[in-house]
Amino acid sequence: MAMAAAQIVSNLFATPERWTALISFLFTVAAAVQGAFWVREFLLSMVERKAASRADDANLASAMGVVTVIINVVVWAFAGIILLDNLGVNVTALVAGLGIGGIAIGLAAQGIFSDLFAALSILLDQPFRRGDTIQVGGPQGVVGTVEHIGMKTTRLRAVSGEAVVMSNANLLNQQINNFADFSHRRVVLLIEVIYQTDPKLLEQIPAELERMVNAIPDCRFDRAHLIQFATSALDYELVFMVERPDLKSMFDARQAVMIAMVRRFAELGIAFAFPSQTSYLAGPDGHIFDPHPPMGGSAKQPIRARKAAATD
């Protein structure tokens, strides 16, 4: 503010040329330094506001240190270049040299920088946190609990017990399923009943499934339908929600529904199907023959002919 006031006074009143040059020089320096301070504090305040809810996170403290260093280097480098340019120094060669040097360093350490910026993205954007259970790489990927988020790698503890270490850049390039934000869990059950089931019972099955699901605590029925004529069974699909996020509660609820289903189907006389195949013998005309004819009959006699003979 002092240099701004001196600059204003020198412009309004007659000032010796030597003093005018000195005041202009000092004002340029002060303006560049003050502008760098403002830009630096603005960028740091944005980062701090983003991380305000996680002040006790040690990983975030490390990330903040790295971010602070990067912001200081970039801001003061730009401020220095702008200052030299305003003082009449030819900075073209300096900028070109810095650009070439930056490209060389970037190519030599692109893996390190990619992992570093990926770590900052993880720590600030928070796709997951330490202690969250995540799945990396889609349905067939690694499932584990996040133990450590570093500047270069992230370490998971897999459900099978081993430690899985992945580079941060490689981690963010894959699909990540975060299981920590569950509000409920969806359960899908495929139920197969035999073709010999009475049609009235087939119509009754969806209502029975809904009653069984709603009778289990923390379960909410969604739908139940006959979905297809399978090879050896009639397939029903049952979908319901478990209103508790933990995995054990979901398995307990699914087990309770399945046991209730077995009991109720036994009461109604509904049999569960199992993979089976029935073979029939037929003649050239397509009529089916019984391979176990009655006493005195012929195995080559069509089934409908035997039924007619038995009726007579």
Automatic annotation (TrEMBL):
| Record's function text | Mechanosensitive channel that participates in the regulation of osmotic pressure changes within the cell, opening in response to stretch forces in the membrane lipid bilayer, without the need for other proteins. Contributes to normal resistance to hypoosmotic shock. Forms an ion channel of 1.0 nanosiemens conductance with a slight preference for anions.
Q: Which Gene3D superfamilies match?
A: 1.10.287.1260, 2.30.30.60, 3.30.70.100
**Source species, please?**
Sandaracinobacter neustonicus
Q: Fetch the InterPro entries from UniProt.
A: LSM_dom_sf, MS_channel_1st, MscS_archaea/bacteria_type, MscS_beta-dom_sf, MscS_channel_2nd, MscS_channel_C_sf, MscS_channel_TM-2
Domain (Mechanosensitive ion channel MscS): give its ranges: 112-179
> Where in the sequence does UniProt note compositional bias of the Basic residues kind?
303-312
Q: Where does the record locate the signal sequence feature?
A: none
Q: Which GO terms describe its cellular component?
A: plasma membrane
Where, subcellularly, is it found? Cell inner membrane; Cell membrane
- Is Transcription one of the keywords? no
Q: In which family does this protein belong, per the annotation?
A: Belongs to the MscS (TC 1.A.23) family.
Tell me the lineage of the source organism.
Bacteria, Pseudomonadati, Pseudomonadota, Alphaproteobacteria, Sphingomonadales
Question: Partners and quaternary state?
Answer: Homoheptamer.
In Swiss-Prot or TrEMBL terms, this protein is called Small-conductance mechanosensitive channel
